[in-house]
Amino acid sequence: MSFARTLRALDGLMAAGVLLFSSAPVALADQTRDDQWPLKAFDAESVWKVSTGKGVKVAVLDQPVNGDHPDLKGNVLPGKDVENGGPANEQHETNHGTSMASIIAAHGHGLGHSSGVKGLAPAAKILPVALPVEVGEVSAPNSDPLAEALRYAVDQGASVVNMSFGWNVLTDEEKQALAYAAKKDVFLVVATGNEGVGRLDPLTSYPGLVAVGAVDKGGKVWSESNYGRQTMLTAPGTLVRSAGANKPYLLGNGT
Fold first, then answer.
1. How far is residue 209's CA from residue 64's CA, in Å, rounded to a whole number?
2. pLDDT tens digits for 190-232?
């Protein structure tokens, strides 16, 4: 298959579901945590009394992740780069995979882990599965990176798969991989996209996937959040503070 018809790219980042990062100055450590309004919106302190995600493996199908970030160190498994081979936990350039991983499973740092960013599941393990992000840059034109990534994540014991990207066409192999994940009771989460349109792409609208849009701090749907009848949830998606691969922290918007 031609990869160019699947993954959309925007400035080297995945367009649908990507956090659109701003150039806001890096916050101080305590301000970084204070900036995480989604934790307050979810009443995360109460959630953590029930579960911190311990024992849960979350596959992040995305760019590779910086597993050495102080807020993620110890929570990121080696994973796999499905295009280039090798691990996917050594990213120090592009930020999106690290950002997604930190929103999920960052644990902060410093005394009592009170500094830096913290995810909603700070004791979960991230399984990074790196997908190609540049359109047309797949070394093996007949490969199917999404199908390979999904099957790898399931076979490695992931119970949740996060997909923050757009996928324009689903092949039969990809549909089989999605069905394989569902059969194994893997929870599949996908972003609705950031174009502000009333249609969802084939991956987002595939049966069994949880499609998530974005709301702002006031609970209003973000103007750029894609929508459609398959949208199942909305979640905080504006002015979201997260960890970066090539800089300590980022601020961005996205589903």
1. 23
2. 999 999 999 999 999 899 899 999 999 999 999 999 999 999 9
Q: What is the rounded CA–CA span in Å between residue 75 and residue 52?
A: 12
Tokens encoding 19: 């956090």
Q: Which structure tokens are listed for 222?
A: 């973000």
How far is Cα 10 from Cα 1, in angstroms, rounded to an integer? 21
- Residue length of the chain: 255
Tens digits of residue pLDDT in 103-157? 999 999 999 898 999 999 999 999 999 998 643 344 444 569 999 999 999 999 9
**Local structure of 5: helix, strand or coil:** helix
Instruction: Round to whole Å and give the CA distance between 55 and 22.
Output: 34
Beta strands 80-81; 240-243: pairing state: unpaired
d(CA 83, CA 98): 18
- For the beta carbon of residue 49, count every other beta carbon within 10 angstroms: 8
What amino acid occupies position 86?
G
Residue whose C-alpha is closest to residue 24's, from 238, 249, 214, 254 = 249
46-56 pLDDT, tens per residue?
999 999 999 99
Q: Decide if 216 contacts 224 (C-beta within 8 A).
A: no
Q: Are residues 160 and 58 in contact, defined by beta-carbon separation less than 8 angstroms?
A: yes
Q: Which residue has the tokens 């990534």?
A: 149
pTM of this structure: 0.88
